[in-house]
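Go through this:
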Amino acid sequence: PVANATITPSPLSHQVCGGDPVALRCSVQVGSAPVTFTRLHDSREVARGPLLGLGDIDVGHSGIYQCVATNRLGHDGHHVFQALSPKLAPEVTPQGHWNRGGVTRGVIGSLLFLVLLVAVIVTWHHWH
């Protein structure tokens, strides 16, 4: 029977930014072939197969993802075994590649500092 189902994001991060491509891969540590996978998003079936490409992710992709691994044993396949993966809840932030919070604040802060520094230098030069 199948056991130890997992769901792994690619890239390996639980926080992703909007516009980033993301894929989820289902696998099992133990299981006789053939093993089938059903992927769940917020407890609803969204696809079948071991790989789910979400494409360019957005906040609508937030939620809980899981995989259900299934295999059938016996001559007529009447013994059905299932394993449910742990929950994966990627955090999707709406920023794009150039708007990643800390980077944007750092650039704006640096520019404001430079403008202030130039104003101080010009004022000092004008008085002397």
